[in-house]
């Protein structure tokens, strides 16, 4: 049985004026990574309707999937964690932002296996009550005096810097403990950890690059882009672990 793995889509400006000039978008690397790991990718649009989020549509979508990948994009509205926007914060499409917050929260309430990637890791932390550094460059000379240039969001899928993976963790069990070269690129990062969240990988300068739930559930977030290196066994192990957790959960359900 191949578990069905949902992945949220981005919203981008389109070439036509139809549908308010917006299109759904998702890197095909996510589709490939889920498929290679043995899952069936299910693309999820923003679940909104006039007046707000369509909670019943989110519930129906979660009924139909066995695990969830939260992809990234632009920046979460900092109002979600009680802060005003930084001048360098670039907000997500507001419909996607509201939908993603509701989708992630609903998936966590259900105990669905979840993997957050880049902005998806930040989303997990925010939904669980944590906060974000809105612009890492501001921390130079402060809390993180040796930030890598890649934290200024250079666009490349090549490996850029290493992270140190904590051995006694789910992430460590999947990836192996110690140094891992990653293609991390971002200008925001996890600051205060959310409820029940542990940091399980960091860059050399202390920036948090992986988080996970400390209650034994498969809730994992990484700041880099493993979907772009799924041919590498260590990076691919994140998606394999998600699919395995989704399969195990589904096999325990009496209706499947």
Layout of SSEs?
Elements: E1 4-8, E2 10-13, E3 22-25, H1 28-36, E4 40-44, E5 48-49, E6 52-53, H2 55-63, E7 67-70, H3 94-110, E8 114-117, H4 119-127, E9 132-133, E10 161-165, H5 170-175, E11 178-182, E12 189-190, E13 197-203, E14 208-213, E15 219-222, H6 233-251
Parallel strand pairs: 1-4, 1-7, 7-8, 8-15
Antiparallel strand pairs: 2-3, 5-6, 9-12, 10-11, 10-13, 13-14, 14-15
Helix pairs in contact: 2-3, 3-4
**Number of DSSP strand runs:** 15
Question: How many distinct helices?
Answer: 6
Percentage of β-strand residues:
15-25%
Which class of secondary structure composition applies to the elements? alpha/beta
Which CATH class is shown? Alpha Beta
Order of helices and strands: EEEHEEEHEHEHEEHEEEEEH
CATH architecture call: 3-Layer(aba) Sandwich
Query: Major β-sheet, in short?
Result: 9 strands, mixed
The total tally of domains equals 1
Helix content: 25-40%
Mean pLDDT: 90
What gross morphology would you assign? globular
CATH topology: Rossmann fold
- In whole angstroms, how far apart are the ends? 10 Å
Low-confidence stretches: none
Radius of gyration: 17 Å
Strand order of the largest sheet: 4-1-7-8-15-14-13-10-11
Give the CATH superfamily: Class I glutamine amidotransferase (GATase) domain
């Amino acid at each position: 049985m191949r578990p069905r793995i949902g992945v949220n889509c981005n919203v981008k400006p389109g070439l036509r004026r139809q549908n308010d000039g917006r299109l759904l978008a998702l890197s095909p690397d996510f589709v490939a990574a889920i498929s290679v790991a043995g899952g069936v990718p299910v693309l999820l649009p923003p679940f909104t309707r006039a007046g707000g989020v369509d909670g019943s549509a989110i519930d129906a979508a979660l009924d139909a999937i066995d695990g969830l990948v939260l992809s990234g994009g632009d920046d979460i509205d900092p109002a979600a964690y009680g802060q005003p926007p930084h001048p360098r914060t670039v907000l997500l499409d507001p419909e996607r932002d509201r939908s993603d917050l509701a989708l992630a929260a609903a998936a966590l309430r259900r105990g669905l296996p979840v993997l957050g990637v880049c902005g998806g890791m930040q989303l997990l932390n925010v939904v669980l009550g944590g906060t974000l550094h809105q612009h890492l460059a501001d921390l130079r000379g402060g809390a993180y005096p040796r930030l890598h240039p890649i934290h200024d969001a250079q666009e490349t899928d090549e490996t850029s810097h290493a992270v140190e993976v904590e051995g006694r963790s789910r992430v460590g069990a999947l990836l192996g403990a110690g140094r891992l070269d990653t293609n991390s690129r971002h200008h925001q990062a996890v600051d205060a950890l959310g409820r029940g969240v542990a940091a399980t990988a960091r860059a050399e300068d202390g920036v948090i690059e992986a988080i996970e739930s400390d209650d034994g559930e498969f809730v994992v977030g990484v700041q880099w882009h493993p979907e772009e290196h799924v041919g590498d066994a260590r990076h691919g192990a994140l998606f394999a672990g998600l699919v395995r957790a989704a399969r195990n959960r589904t096999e325990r359900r009496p209706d499947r």
